Amino acid sequence: MTAIAEHKPAPPKPGTGGGDGGFIDLVLRFRELTILAALIVLVAVTTAVNPRFLSAQGVEDIFLNASILVLLAVGQTLVVVTRNIDLSVGSTVGLVAFVVGDFVTNSDHGLVVAVALGVGIGAVCGLVNGLLVSFCGVPALVVTLGTLYVIQGLNHYIAHGEQISAAEVPQSILDLGNGAILGVPYLPLISVVVMLLVGYYLRAYSSGREFYAIGSSPEAARLAGVPIRRRVLTAYLASGVLAGLAGTLWLARFGTVIADPAKGWELKVVAAVVVGGVAIVGGVGTVYGAALGALLITTIGSVLVVLKINSFWQEAIVGLLLLLAISADRLVALRLARVLRKRNARHG
User: Is 257 helix (H, G, I), strand (E, B) or coil?
Assistant: First the structure.
């Protein structure tokens, strides 16, 4: 047995990137605090212009609209921290929303079966992506771009130009999307619970920290005995499952569904994750930051509607935020490299 095998390096803590942990953790906290501050300023300015923006109904609408994006961002975070990407989540949401809607409107099944079916379809999509990326070695961008179009085509074939009407959807499913418990809507509650569970897993379990080890340095992770293929497959499977759940919640939230209703959401999800501090090169970030990124992007959309500004600007602003986030990640990487070179020089 080699020395490496006898002394396996411990996977880095979540968000540390396996390097100067204190510096990276400080940057991540700063990024998340910056997003929170931007949210507060955005809401304050908009409320000053239109006081109704911060009404109970306005706040509820923002959280309801953000819930599905948060779910997708949590799943995408698992993939991105392993140095991969999943561009098929928007198409998966659309496929699940229509198929589940079509199924429940033509049968006597209710909420439980609808959720199980949606999660199952999402799991299959995630499993296909994961197998192609982890075991076949096909680049993630190529795989998920391909499955994006395959799922879109399948969705349009199944829909045949028809749509699901809210009047046909069972009330139990609609209640999930628009109901509440103790005044708290179900959708935000589900998203928060999922976010907390995934965040706790990534931080508290060694298998969770291995996702970050893979993203920080795949070669070092391999030498440390991390099951890279299995973890990458798990990341895609989890992303698919959450996309399936999100698709079911989409049906529950809106009731009326056309073919491919979440078209273009894959880029919105990636933007939320990267703006939230998850490095596109992997190894750094948290699901909490990704959720904040999703909330910020959703709030920007609501603000533009309230201020009666052309929706085009939402895409422009999201694109600008994405460029700024990627630039910030690059600057952090360069700063970290300089810190490590100085440290190595002192100990050399």
Answer: strand
**Chain segment 209-266, per-residue pLDDT in tens:** 999 999 988 999 999 999 999 999 999 999 999 999 999 999 999 988 888 778 889 9
Closest Cα partner for 125 from 16, 243, 210?
Answer: 243
- HSE (CB half, 13 Å, CA atoms) of 52? 3
In the chain, the domains with their CATH numbers are 17-39+57-330 (1.10.3470)
Provide the whole-model pTM. 0.86
- Residue 202: DSSP 8-state: H
Is residue 288 a contact partner of residue 219, using CB atoms and an 8 Å limit?
no
**Could you identify the residue written with the tokens 């990534």?**
202
Tokens at residue 10, please? Answer: 């411990």
Residues 6+ apart with CB under 8 A from 106: none
Element (H, E) at 210: helix 206-216
- Is the separation of the CB atoms in 259 and 246 below 8 Å? no
